[in-house]
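Thread title: Can someone regenerate the structure for this chain?

I was given the following input by a collaborator and told the matching C-alpha coordinates would be attached. They weren't. Posting the sequence so someone can regenerate them.
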Amino acid sequence: MVKQRETYKKRSAKDGYKTCSKCEENKAVSEFHKSKANADGYNYYCKQCVKNYSKWKYANDPDYRAKIKNYNKQWVIDNRAHVNARAREYAAKRRATDPEYVERHRMYDRRALDRNPERRERNRIKSKEWYFEQGVAYKQKYNEQRRHRYANDPEFKQRVYVSILKRQRAMRGGDISLTGEQWETIIEQHEGRCVYCGCIPQVMTVDHVVPLSKGGAHNAYNVVPSCSSCNSSKNSKMPEKLQMKIPVLTDFEEL
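Best answer:
Regenerated them for you:
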Protein backbone atom coordinates (compact mmCIF):
# COMPACT_ATOMS: atom_id res chain seq x y z
CA MET A 1 0.00 0.00 0.00
CA VAL A 2 2.83 2.37 0.93
CA LYS A 3 4.64 1.45 -2.28
CA GLN A 4 1.53 2.22 -4.33
CA ARG A 5 1.22 5.64 -2.69
CA GLU A 6 4.87 6.44 -3.41
CA THR A 7 4.41 5.39 -7.06
CA TYR A 8 1.28 7.55 -7.35
CA LYS A 9 3.13 10.56 -5.89
CA LYS A 10 5.93 10.13 -8.43
CA ARG A 11 3.43 9.97 -11.29
CA SER A 12 1.17 12.78 -10.06
CA ALA A 13 1.12 16.12 -11.87
CA LYS A 14 3.95 18.35 -10.73
CA ASP A 15 5.16 21.64 -12.22
CA GLY A 16 2.90 21.11 -15.24
CA TYR A 17 4.16 17.58 -15.98
CA LYS A 18 2.91 14.06 -15.24
CA THR A 19 4.17 10.50 -15.80
CA CYS A 20 1.91 8.16 -17.80
CA SER A 21 1.19 4.88 -15.98
CA LYS A 22 1.18 2.98 -19.30
CA CYS A 23 4.17 4.20 -21.30
CA GLU A 24 5.88 5.72 -18.21
CA GLU A 25 6.89 8.83 -20.15
CA ASN A 26 6.96 12.22 -18.42
CA LYS A 27 4.66 14.53 -20.42
CA ALA A 28 2.98 17.89 -20.08
CA VAL A 29 -0.41 17.76 -18.35
CA SER A 30 -1.99 18.96 -21.62
CA GLU A 31 -1.25 15.44 -22.93
CA PHE A 32 -3.66 13.94 -20.34
CA HIS A 33 -7.43 14.00 -20.18
CA LYS A 34 -8.90 15.66 -17.11
CA SER A 35 -10.39 13.37 -14.43
CA LYS A 36 -12.22 14.38 -11.24
CA ALA A 37 -11.61 10.90 -9.81
CA ASN A 38 -7.86 11.56 -9.34
CA ALA A 39 -6.38 13.92 -6.76
CA ASP A 40 -4.25 15.78 -9.31
CA GLY A 41 -7.24 16.19 -11.66
CA TYR A 42 -5.78 14.21 -14.59
CA ASN A 43 -6.15 10.68 -15.96
CA TYR A 44 -3.55 8.00 -15.21
CA TYR A 45 -2.84 7.42 -18.90
CA CYS A 46 -1.77 9.93 -21.52
CA LYS A 47 -4.01 10.72 -24.51
CA GLN A 48 -1.85 8.69 -26.90
CA CYS A 49 -2.03 5.55 -24.77
CA VAL A 50 -5.81 5.95 -24.39
CA LYS A 51 -6.08 6.34 -28.17
CA ASN A 52 -3.96 3.25 -28.83
CA TYR A 53 -6.05 1.18 -26.41
CA SER A 54 -9.30 2.39 -28.03
CA LYS A 55 -8.00 1.39 -31.46
CA TRP A 56 -7.01 -2.06 -30.19
CA LYS A 57 -10.38 -2.60 -28.48
CA TYR A 58 -12.28 -1.39 -31.58
CA ALA A 59 -10.41 -3.92 -33.73
CA ASN A 60 -10.78 -6.86 -31.33
CA ASP A 61 -14.07 -6.38 -29.49
CA PRO A 62 -17.23 -6.67 -31.71
CA ASP A 63 -19.56 -5.40 -28.97
CA TYR A 64 -17.44 -2.31 -28.38
CA ARG A 65 -17.19 -1.70 -32.13
CA ALA A 66 -20.99 -1.89 -32.52
CA LYS A 67 -21.44 0.45 -29.56
CA ILE A 68 -19.09 3.06 -31.06
CA LYS A 69 -20.77 2.85 -34.48
CA ASN A 70 -24.22 3.35 -32.96
CA TYR A 71 -22.96 6.27 -30.90
CA ASN A 72 -21.37 7.95 -33.93
CA LYS A 73 -24.51 7.40 -36.03
CA GLN A 74 -26.73 8.93 -33.35
CA TRP A 75 -24.34 11.85 -32.87
CA VAL A 76 -24.53 12.67 -36.59
CA ILE A 77 -28.34 12.57 -36.45
CA ASP A 78 -28.44 14.84 -33.40
CA ASN A 79 -25.91 17.31 -34.87
CA ARG A 80 -26.94 17.28 -38.55
CA ALA A 81 -26.70 21.08 -38.96
CA HIS A 82 -23.16 21.15 -37.57
CA VAL A 83 -22.07 18.19 -39.74
CA ASN A 84 -23.50 19.79 -42.90
CA ALA A 85 -21.85 23.13 -42.13
CA ARG A 86 -18.45 21.48 -41.66
CA ALA A 87 -18.90 19.47 -44.86
CA ARG A 88 -19.77 22.62 -46.86
CA GLU A 89 -16.78 24.43 -45.39
CA TYR A 90 -14.43 21.57 -46.29
CA ALA A 91 -15.85 21.28 -49.82
CA ALA A 92 -15.50 25.04 -50.39
CA LYS A 93 -11.82 24.94 -49.38
CA ARG A 94 -11.13 21.95 -51.65
CA ARG A 95 -12.94 23.55 -54.61
CA ALA A 96 -10.90 26.73 -54.18
CA THR A 97 -7.53 24.95 -54.07
CA ASP A 98 -7.90 21.62 -55.90
CA PRO A 99 -9.21 21.60 -59.53
CA GLU A 100 -8.96 17.79 -59.64
CA TYR A 101 -11.37 17.58 -56.69
CA VAL A 102 -13.93 19.67 -58.60
CA GLU A 103 -13.63 17.59 -61.78
CA ARG A 104 -13.73 14.29 -59.86
CA HIS A 105 -16.98 15.23 -58.11
CA ARG A 106 -18.51 16.55 -61.32
CA MET A 107 -17.81 13.26 -63.10
CA TYR A 108 -19.10 11.27 -60.10
CA ASP A 109 -22.37 13.22 -60.11
CA ARG A 110 -22.80 12.69 -63.85
CA ARG A 111 -22.19 8.93 -63.61
CA ALA A 112 -24.58 8.67 -60.64
CA LEU A 113 -27.35 10.42 -62.59
CA ASP A 114 -26.70 8.29 -65.68
CA ARG A 115 -27.04 5.13 -63.59
CA ASN A 116 -30.26 6.34 -61.98
CA PRO A 117 -32.68 8.12 -64.38
CA GLU A 118 -35.32 8.28 -61.63
CA ARG A 119 -32.95 10.29 -59.45
CA ARG A 120 -32.27 12.63 -62.37
CA GLU A 121 -36.01 13.19 -62.80
CA ARG A 122 -36.49 13.77 -59.06
CA ASN A 123 -33.73 16.37 -59.11
CA ARG A 124 -35.34 18.14 -62.07
CA ILE A 125 -38.74 18.23 -60.33
CA LYS A 126 -37.16 19.44 -57.10
CA SER A 127 -35.29 22.19 -58.97
CA LYS A 128 -38.52 23.27 -60.66
CA GLU A 129 -40.37 23.47 -57.34
CA TRP A 130 -37.53 25.48 -55.79
CA TYR A 131 -37.41 27.82 -58.79
CA PHE A 132 -41.12 28.62 -58.61
CA GLU A 133 -40.85 29.26 -54.87
CA GLN A 134 -37.65 31.32 -54.82
CA GLY A 135 -36.62 31.70 -58.44
CA VAL A 136 -37.55 35.36 -58.92
CA ALA A 137 -35.67 36.55 -55.82
CA TYR A 138 -32.70 34.32 -56.67
CA LYS A 139 -32.59 35.60 -60.25
CA GLN A 140 -32.58 39.21 -59.06
CA LYS A 141 -29.74 38.45 -56.64
CA TYR A 142 -27.85 36.53 -59.35
CA ASN A 143 -28.23 39.42 -61.84
CA GLU A 144 -26.99 41.92 -59.25
CA GLN A 145 -23.93 39.76 -58.62
CA ARG A 146 -23.24 39.51 -62.36
CA ARG A 147 -23.60 43.29 -62.83
CA HIS A 148 -21.23 43.92 -59.94
CA ARG A 149 -18.73 41.40 -61.33
CA TYR A 150 -19.09 42.84 -64.84
CA ALA A 151 -18.25 46.31 -63.49
CA ASN A 152 -15.25 45.20 -61.41
CA ASP A 153 -13.75 42.17 -63.16
CA PRO A 154 -12.12 42.99 -66.56
CA GLU A 155 -11.56 39.30 -67.37
CA PHE A 156 -15.23 38.45 -66.80
CA LYS A 157 -16.29 41.49 -68.82
CA GLN A 158 -14.13 40.30 -71.73
CA ARG A 159 -15.66 36.79 -71.59
CA VAL A 160 -19.18 38.21 -71.69
CA TYR A 161 -18.25 40.46 -74.62
CA VAL A 162 -16.76 37.53 -76.58
CA SER A 163 -19.84 35.38 -75.89
CA ILE A 164 -22.22 38.10 -77.12
CA LEU A 165 -20.04 38.72 -80.18
CA LYS A 166 -20.06 35.03 -81.12
CA ARG A 167 -23.84 34.89 -80.80
CA GLN A 168 -24.32 37.99 -82.94
CA ARG A 169 -22.00 36.65 -85.63
CA ALA A 170 -23.86 33.30 -85.64
CA MET A 171 -27.18 35.09 -86.08
CA ARG A 172 -25.86 37.38 -88.84
CA GLY A 173 -24.46 34.42 -90.73
CA GLY A 174 -27.73 32.45 -90.73
CA ASP A 175 -31.47 32.80 -91.07
CA ILE A 176 -32.91 35.32 -88.56
CA SER A 177 -36.43 35.53 -89.96
CA LEU A 178 -38.36 34.89 -86.70
CA THR A 179 -41.06 37.52 -86.15
CA GLY A 180 -42.97 38.51 -83.03
CA GLU A 181 -46.24 37.15 -84.45
CA GLN A 182 -44.65 33.78 -85.19
CA TRP A 183 -43.25 33.62 -81.66
CA GLU A 184 -46.69 34.34 -80.16
CA THR A 185 -48.19 31.62 -82.37
CA ILE A 186 -45.57 29.12 -81.22
CA ILE A 187 -46.30 29.88 -77.54
CA GLU A 188 -50.06 29.51 -78.12
CA GLN A 189 -49.56 26.20 -79.93
CA HIS A 190 -47.71 24.83 -76.88
CA GLU A 191 -50.32 26.32 -74.51
CA GLY A 192 -47.75 28.51 -72.81
CA ARG A 193 -45.81 25.52 -71.51
CA CYS A 194 -42.13 24.63 -71.60
CA VAL A 195 -41.66 21.99 -74.30
CA TYR A 196 -39.10 20.08 -72.18
CA CYS A 197 -40.68 19.83 -68.70
CA GLY A 198 -44.27 20.96 -69.33
CA CYS A 199 -44.31 23.71 -66.67
CA ILE A 200 -45.92 27.14 -67.14
CA PRO A 201 -43.05 29.53 -66.34
CA GLN A 202 -43.36 33.10 -65.19
CA VAL A 203 -40.94 34.14 -67.93
CA MET A 204 -40.83 32.23 -71.24
CA THR A 205 -37.53 32.11 -73.09
CA VAL A 206 -36.60 31.34 -76.70
CA ASP A 207 -34.69 28.10 -77.12
CA HIS A 208 -32.98 27.12 -80.37
CA VAL A 209 -33.36 23.36 -80.83
CA VAL A 210 -30.22 23.32 -82.98
CA PRO A 211 -28.01 25.87 -81.16
CA LEU A 212 -26.79 28.94 -83.03
CA SER A 213 -23.23 27.91 -82.23
CA LYS A 214 -23.83 24.67 -84.19
CA GLY A 215 -25.33 26.36 -87.26
CA GLY A 216 -28.95 26.55 -86.15
CA ALA A 217 -31.22 29.25 -87.53
CA HIS A 218 -33.14 31.92 -85.65
CA ASN A 219 -36.41 31.21 -87.42
CA ALA A 220 -39.83 29.77 -86.63
CA TYR A 221 -38.74 26.23 -87.55
CA ASN A 222 -35.92 26.08 -85.02
CA VAL A 223 -37.27 27.84 -81.90
CA VAL A 224 -39.45 26.49 -79.11
CA PRO A 225 -40.73 27.97 -75.83
CA SER A 226 -38.69 26.93 -72.82
CA CYS A 227 -38.44 27.86 -69.16
CA SER A 228 -35.21 29.47 -67.95
CA SER A 229 -34.13 26.34 -66.06
CA CYS A 230 -34.42 23.97 -69.05
CA ASN A 231 -32.88 26.54 -71.39
CA SER A 232 -29.88 26.95 -69.09
CA SER A 233 -29.53 23.18 -68.67
CA LYS A 234 -29.61 22.61 -72.42
CA ASN A 235 -27.19 25.49 -73.10
CA SER A 236 -25.49 24.87 -76.46
CA LYS A 237 -26.16 21.10 -76.55
CA MET A 238 -28.63 19.04 -78.52
CA PRO A 239 -31.69 17.75 -76.54
CA GLU A 240 -30.93 14.08 -77.15
CA LYS A 241 -27.45 14.48 -75.71
CA LEU A 242 -28.95 15.55 -72.38
CA GLN A 243 -31.71 12.90 -72.54
CA MET A 244 -34.29 15.69 -72.82
CA LYS A 245 -37.60 15.30 -74.63
CA ILE A 246 -37.27 16.13 -78.34
CA PRO A 247 -39.63 19.10 -78.96
CA VAL A 248 -42.28 19.15 -81.69
CA LEU A 249 -41.50 22.08 -83.99
CA THR A 250 -44.18 24.31 -85.44
CA ASP A 251 -44.99 23.82 -89.12
CA PHE A 252 -46.25 27.18 -90.37
CA GLU A 253 -47.09 25.75 -93.77
CA GLU A 254 -49.97 23.83 -92.17
CA LEU A 255 -51.34 26.88 -90.33
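Residues 19-78 form one domain.
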